[in-house]
């Protein structure tokens, strides 16, 4: 039998397995997934830091009307923990959050979460990580760990638009990621600023109860019609009795999303054309030619994150709905004034303006080896080694790090792949095969150069502005197939790491 690359690097055998101290930052689906894997492997010297008062990440913060996932529920779950309880093909946010919390409790991750605790700074001491934390009550403390894992997500800090006079509005201003349930919207006049997935999901439930709903649209979106089938008691009972049914759904939906949309994103061909035809056919359901023209994008479908909805076009055609294409000039106490001088008198302004995308661990600061800081490494924008690590930051890993394939894929599937990869290093540390490890700078540069070279074939570079692009217009997502992503993270390329 030949000698493997790993055997060449690790010449000595492990002498007694040890248990690492691990800190995971964030308890969205990626942090919970990482915690589940650690606990299942017996690494229970574990702390998860969560700045909110409950887990769930984006599914905790977002509670706006109409919230639901645009990835099928049976695919937006952990493959090793299929659920038979999903009520619909595309479930609402609270049902999804409850699933992830249920998983955290089942694997005894939940009791290791420190809620209302923010990670302020992390510093490599030469032998471990020192993490400075601050509680919501103002308390400060320093924690130590052998392995630090950031699972902070990509959409964390809400983006509040810089609109003149917004603070002067006499009504209520609510951001979609900080929804105020104390506000009764029944019979109210509501303006929705933003028309990505969030803004579009709001329109139908708002028009159900509001006297008037105005959608302020800067750029039209392509909308893919996906019927939201409800799962009855009979179907759920069958899935409980035969778990293979849920697994079948998972595999089927994964194949459909990766082959239909996934390939269309990275390369022009039949799948991109098919998605385009479906979106254009859906747009034809808008009867009024003037309204249809306002809703017609001038870019290739999937250049922006594809919106999936069968409710939006019927809702925006209701008598109490209005689409406003003129730009917003300013806000005054009575409402929103467009650049054409039209005043829309409103009671509530709903900001569906998204997040400061791709901040990852920020605004937390980090200092790695030899005084290098996260600001130094990311001065030209977030980058990393194969989505999971950073050169100069030993024993530090990321779930959902830079360049992860987040465009119309299941983040649960991505988190599974990355957390399994990270566990290889946790196991090797436990087996005393290294004291510290970080990716080589030259390997990281090669990966980023190869990634950039492959961006030219993706749909993101066909001529639109989106949160996929950085300040220089360069996409920051994964430019290859999901299959390649899983293969790339199947086994660590130890020759691309600095190992001590």
Describe this structure as you would to a colleague.
The chain is an alpha/beta fold. The chain folds into 2 domains: 284 residues, FAD/NAD(P)-binding domain; 114 residues, FAD/NAD(P)-binding domain, CATH 3.50.50.60. Helices cover 30% and strands 17% of the residues. A 5-stranded parallel beta sheet has the order 3-2-1-7-19, with helices on one face. Strands 8-17-9-10-13 form a 5-stranded parallel beta sheet, with helices on one face. β14 and β15 form a beta hairpin. α2 runs parallel beside α12 and α7 packs across α8. The chain is globular and about 70 Å long. The two termini are 27 Å apart. The N terminus is likely disordered.
**What would you call the shape?**
globular
Share of residues in helices: 25-40%
Number of strands: 21
The CATH topology name of the largest domain reads FAD/NAD(P)-binding domain
| CATH hierarchy class name of the largest domain | Alpha Beta
* Mean pLDDT across every amino acid position: 92
The CATH architecture of the largest domain comes to: 3-Layer(bba) Sandwich
Low-confidence stretches: 1-15
Distance between the termini: 27 Å
Biggest sheet architecture:
5 strands, parallel
State Rg. 24 Å
Report the portion of residues in β strands: 15-25%
CATH homologous superfamily descriptor of the largest domain = FAD/NAD(P)-binding domain
